Amino acid sequence: MKLWGQMLWGHLSGLRGRQGGIWGWACSTWQSHQPQAGPLSASGLVKHWTAVFEKRGIPEARESSEYIVAHVLGAKTFQSLRPVLWTQPLTAQQLQGIQELCNLRLQRMPVQYILGEWDFQGLTLKMAPPVFIPRPETEELIEWILEEVAQRPQAVGAQGSPLILEVGCGSGAIALSLLSQLPESQVIAVDKKEAAISLTRENAQRLRLQGRIQTILLDVTIEDSWTHLLPWGPMDLIVSNPPYVFHKDMEQLAPEIRSYEDSVALDGGEKGMDIISHILTLAPQLLKASGSIFLEVDPRHPELVSSWLQSRPDLCLGLVAVRKDFCGRHVAGPKDHGGGKLLTSWQPGNGESKEGSGDNSYLPEAPSEHITFN
Amino acid sequence: MPLMSTWGWFRSPELLARICTKTQGFGLQEKLALLSPGMAAFMVQIAGKKDFPALLPLNENELEEQSVKGHGPGGQATNKTNNCVVLKHVPSGIVVKCHQTRSVNQNRKLARKILQEKVDVFYNGEKSAVYKERQEAQKKKQERKKRAKETLEKKKVLKELWESSKNVSEERTADSDRMYCTAYKE
């Protein structure tokens, strides 16, 4: 029996295609006992749940089922799983786990809350409703800040060990990714919600960054609340992804967002400017003369901010740069990537479409922008 | 694709860059003219000067990045989890799709790294650093296998020697055993 097994193994490891004779037969018999991507394999389950989600109108049907199945198998993405695991049958425990998580998705829970974690700038962060889930666009904000700090440290007031204030830290995504990539930096992270402060603290501890971050429960819209931050000294940088959704747009948000994420983290008031204007008001009191503010905002904001600053010359702030993130406008086109998704193409830096086919119509409006002041 | 016919030619990074920028807006005919046979010798000379050429750097202007996004606004107003990055190197037509992580930023960086290696192999063929690294790794693996096999053989020989020396000493002590051994030989 052992000899048979050895010969079979030796044959199969060098196998490129069918070979004739008895070994060919032995090989095919062995293979016929292997469920090639059967219904109870990872691939089979992804296929099954994709269909279920599509039928129930769940957005990102394939992506959702892929992330859930990969997660239960211990991987972050389906593509990163060892291919051999795609076709092996899953255990009863794994099947049950997938079932439970997929049921949550049927209730429109965001994938990040279902998995209880998500990645941002190379860090894995715990996610918990209703704390705001970091968006991929915000990773661009981090990249921009890192570039500025590296290239022109004097422009951001940072000399070796920048002191950074983050307003509205949420899960700690911005604060912790800056800490991890600027080893000498220190962060003061504030948020008006206890759940956010708690989650930021937990993520800081998980990443062993708790020694360089100070979390403070604080509502910057309350008059003079920022004075509590004075003892920590003038800051080099103020950074924020503040609530900037226009109030009238709130009801159009997807159920994933409306039902599970804290609306306070999103609603920026009538023109989405409420928190932004408060940050700009407190900034001169807390920033070093050479410091900078980095914000993520709605595309309609740079103009609004510009005119708002003009009405407040006492603040001595100037809008220095506006940078579109890499997400271009969404275009309709003949290309369809399964699941009915639309394809967008852009060139990093200017948001312009490079799609050659004439069928695409391009609207030059970026979904979010990053602005810097000093 | 016309450039495919030149696969295997050795090109220096400088020439490659020059060709690419000049051919922007050129038709296919012009591209072929630039890569005339007369240039081959020149190219080989330059390539031959280095044993391990550094990986060809990617020019962002020659890259086209795609992502799957839905309708409507982005940023806070949406929660998209599809962070797959598709990156195309326009001059060579090589496309890389990366969905290794859940961070779109990481996927973009990884896609560029993978694309850089593929482009390097595409233009430098056997002279590419990537190809050479793989060859080195394969060679080391083969050497290790060979050594392991040799060790196994040595152990086998030693074991046989041990066994046969044992048999000899047993023959001297047990008559019945000796008779069995004799019978077996016959």
Automatic annotation (TrEMBL), chain B:
Write out the similarity annotation: Belongs to the prokaryotic/mitochondrial release factor family.
The question of whether Mitochondrion is a record keyword is answered with: yes
Protein location: Mitochondrion
Where is it predominantly found? Answer: mitochondrion
Q: Which GO terms describe its cellular component?
A: mitochondrion
Q: What does this protein do?
A: Part of a mitoribosome-associated quality control pathway that prevents aberrant translation by responding to interruptions during elongation. As heterodimer with MTRES1, ejects the unfinished nascent chain and peptidyl transfer RNA (tRNA), respectively, from stalled ribosomes. Recruitment of mitoribosome biogenesis factors to these quality control intermediates suggests additional roles for MTRES1 and MTRF during mitoribosome rescue.
Check the record and name the SUPFAM superfamilies matching this protein.
Release factor (SSF75620)
Write out the GO biological process terms: rescue of stalled ribosome
Name used for this protein in its record: Mitochondrial translation release factor in rescue
Complexes and interactors: Interacts (via C-terminus) with MTRES1 (via S4 domain). Associates with mitoribosomal S39 large subunit, peptidyl tRNA and nascent chain.
**Record's PANTHER family?**
MITOCHONDRIAL TRANSLATION RELEASE FACTOR IN RESCUE, PROBABLE PEPTIDE CHAIN RELEASE FACTOR C12ORF65
UniProt keywords (A-Z) are: Coiled coil, Methylation, Mitochondrion, Protein biosynthesis, Transit peptide
**Classification via InterPro entries:** Mito_Transl_Release_Factor, Pep_chain_release_fac_I, Pep_chain_release_fac_I_sf
GO MF annotations, alphabetized: ribosomal large subunit binding; translation release factor activity, codon specific; tRNA binding
Residue ranges of domain Prokaryotic-type class I peptide chain release factors in the record: 58-150
Parts forming coiled coils: none
